[in-house]
Amino acid sequence: MSATTLDAPPASPAQARSQRLRDPAFWADWAALVGLIGLTIVFQSLNSTFLSSGNVQSILVAAAILIILSIGQTYTIATGGIDLSVASVMTFAAVVFGWSFTEGWALPLCMAAAVATGLLAGALNGFIIAKGKIPDFVVTLGSLSAASGLALILSDGKPTTVISPFLLKLSTQGIGIFGWTFLLALVLAALTHVLLFNTRFGTHVLAAGGSAEAATATGISTARIKIAVYTISGTLAGLCGILLVARIGASSPAADTTMTLNTVAAVVLGGVSLLGGRATIIGPVLGALVLTVLVNGLTLVGVSQFYQPLSVGIVVVLAALLMRFQK
Q: CA-CA distance, 280 to 262, in Å (whole number)?
């Protein structure tokens, strides 16, 4: 055999880096981080106050709720499902918090009631999906409407002012530019990362999302996994109900439906497969930051808020196109 038919010598480090940069899979895996860096550079060049400590702190505080909701959404999507009710469950939990507060309950009990509301809503979603064999989309779409309706009924359609020194400190104070709500989001991200990648439960979640039939054949109860991931999503939504009350100083029955779409967008930007079986926690965290930075930056440079949903939609579609090249 001639020397010309032998395998080519291994590529040099420079050639290897060049090949990675030309590989669409590289950009698909790092889309959220690259987008975050790119948007930061663009908005800082357009407005010098973008990276001021006050604005950065505002961005991080605004991103906290979306980060936590996106973590819960990651678990449901990792199993091949989706939770469309997270924003409405969060709103309902906030209303329960406001109602119990006006009834004179102690603050810890009000907080426990809000979290329990989210937990029960998530567990009910998971039970109906797993045991009723009904598609996730249909069940959570129904619970979206039901939670919104219950919030309106319990509050009589009126917001409730909540005045609490603890909640005020929670929403306005922190360590340096890192508010307590953002630090809480980071702690939850770390804990859920360990749960997903360093426990048997996490392995079962990814296995159930990769192939439910194969997971069942190996003895994994996919029904229990479904119930568990929706319970996690609902519980985190209940916690976000408390953070929402702390942020605006009131519990309002008006649900922000765009928050649900943004959680899915953050998950997609973060590189989580919508088909299940592939997930990450840091990706959706970065995705939530990208969306928050995008809205904040557009506001700073004077772009009308009517164009902001359009820009978010474009970013999500581009991220979805990149997902085709993921390895």
A: 17
Q: How far apart are CA 295 and CA 249, in angstroms?
A: 22
5: DSSP letter: G
Give the CB-side neighbour count of residue 24, counting CA atoms within 13 A. Answer: 9
Q: How far apart are CA 218 and CA 212, in angstroms?
A: 10
Contacts by 12-17 with C-beta closer than 8 Å and gap 24+?
none
Per-residue pLDDT reduced to its tens digit, 37-67? 999 999 999 999 999 999 999 999 999 999 9
- Please, which residues have CB within 8 angstroms of residue 245's CB and are 6 or more apart in sequence? 94, 97, 98, 114, 162, 167, 251
> What is the CATH number that goes with domain 53-323?
1.10.3470
- The alpha carbon of residue 287 and the mean position of all alpha carbons in its chain are separated, in whole angstroms, by 8
pLDDT in tens, 234-288: 999 999 999 999 999 989 888 777 888 899 989 988 888 888 888 899 999 999 9
Q: Tokens 């006006």 appear where?
A: 102
Q: How far, in Å, CA of 194 to CA of 190, rounded?
A: 6
How far is Cα 47 from Cα 157, in angstroms, rounded to an integer?
Answer: 40
Report whether 209 contacts 79 (CB < 8 A).
yes
